[in-house]
Amino acid sequence: MKRLVYFTADDHSVYTWSAGKLELEAKFPGDELGVTAFREYLSGHRGGLFYALADLAGEDFHEEQIPYLRGGDREIVVQRRLAQRYRDTRLATALSLGHIRGERRNERLLLTSFTNTQRLTPWLDALAESEAKLAGMFSVPLLAPALAARLGARGGRCFVVTVNTTGLRQCFVEDGKLRFARLERTVDMVPEALASFVRSETGRLAQYLSTLRVLPREGPPVQVLVVAPHGLRAAFERTLVSDTRLSFLTVDQTDAERRVGVKSAPPDTGAEQLYLHLAVRRPPREQFARREDRRSYYLWQLKRGLVAAGGLSLAACALYAGAGWIEIFGQRGEVEQLRAETRSTQQQYERITSTFPVTQTTTDNLRATVVEFTNIAKRSAQPERALVYLSKVLGDFPQIELDSLAWRIEGGAQRARNAAAAVAPSDPKRTATEVLDISGRVGAMQRSDYRAITQEVQRFADALRADPSYEVLRTQLPFDVTSEGTLSGDIGRAAETGEAPRFTIVLGRSVQ
Amino acid sequence: MNFTALELRQLALPLLAFIALLGAGSALITWTESRAGAQASVLADARGERSRAKERLMRIAEEEKEVTEKLEVYQHLKTLGILGDERRLEWADAMTRIRTERELPDLRYRVERQRPLVSVPGKPAPVDFYASTMRVELLLLHEGDLLHFLGDLRQSGNAYYSVRSCALARTGQPAAVAGLAPRLRAECEIDLITIMDRAAKT
User: Which residues in chain B have their CB less than 8 angstroms from residue A345's CB?
Assistant: First the structure.
């Protein structure tokens, strides 16, 4: 529930506002007794949310210029200007009118305050004492630009004229910003007289502003938006005839209420209900209350903001999660469809394979058995081939006598053996090497004839290379003639008495 | 704006609510993302499975040809007794027969305990390959006896004989004394490989 305190010169009213509906809750006289009654009233609404709206005649407007500044520096200068202008700055504020085009870019300010702030401060103190959350202290003129926009003002200059219970309120708005306002008391008069009063007062105001050079003397007519009280539009339109200086546009108060969004209001309220409603729905940034008067409101906003931010975060997370779950459910459907397709394909496969030749095992095991067996067989070798090859080569070397032969498989078979621990399928690309160690002697030659013996062994090794599939992996000559080895001899003794010199040749062949 | 202690206490509850709501939101997202990850994995598996099934169906003609070819080898393995349990008595019989037929002066052998060689995954059961290493010592009149022995061993079946090593050396008997005495000694190490197809129908 939001509450509005409406300050006038005579008395002050408290309205409740809920969803566009205004209801009068309390009314207090503007004197000391009224303040006391107001305190009592507030004791029953401690911590409530309040908006304050002043509709008073004594409101000052003064235009100033300050240098182009930002942040804290600007605030200091603005406060200094307000202090220079007004003795009591508790209810004073500065409205920015924009920057002047030029090199210095000075800022135009409209300083405004009430001429008699003492009348209002006890009421604001009472609000502060009751820990009320004061959203802002506004005056009717501060809300005039918002009302002008709602009534269809197209920018430029315009007067907004309303008939409030306090009197005839005239506000001058330029480019959506307030420039001046005044309140002229009215007495009960017939519609035509009221319309004439509106016309004459508007003319006077225009004249006054021209004198101040706020309004240019020449130029197009200034638009005047007049909110006519209920049922008086026709009378107003008859009287408010546009001329070269002023262009009147009369809006019926009922229509204005609709445009502003007022759902209902007490029957005896004038056009101030429009401002009251705008104070809640469209409160302007600029207002009169000090920061310390609004501290409870800031704290309340912060608390609400925290909870709202948490709620929004949760909602955003829930939205994101919801999108994720939509995707998950979509994927579940897709998985079901894929599984159904897989089952169908497998059934089709089984139908077709049932016509295959009868096997004693499954197709997978048949393939696994044969493929792995083929791999093992490929990596295996039999010694016959190497022995037969050696035998053929030996036919050309009658002096060579073999002592021993050692044939073995290296690589594949060895690895296959080691794989026993891992028991993993063998790699078909793995190759094995068939190795044949040949140890022998060169007979029928003198032992001292090391040149001939070495030559014969080398010739034998060369002959073993005739088949390109075989490779001589190592040759150990009877005499080490390499630079890396040690050459030794025993020249002084009869060498022929010993055995023939031995040699070793290692032959290899890659097994696919 | 500096807060008083009272104001800070007033802010504590909304702050806690904010943290709790934010935490709940984060937890919700974390949970959703973990489920989404798991679901994506299931989807990828399902896609892979369907793809494999389709691929298999498309290769069915090729598979039929492969089955026909492989069946021939499989049957041959079965006929040779390579498929199935070890037949150690048959191996002993074969060794005795070869020694007698080839009139080998001496033949000693020892078959080690069976060890797993390779296990190939199959469907519905794996195919296990086993090997039993046989060490053979032979006395030979000439080197041809070794070749005959190996050939006869292969012909005897009941396993796939993968020779791992064979060493041949002279016995050192003088030629004049020897006569029909063995002149060569051979030592071989042979893997006797058998296959156990767990899905085979008995």
Answer: 50, 53-54, 56-57
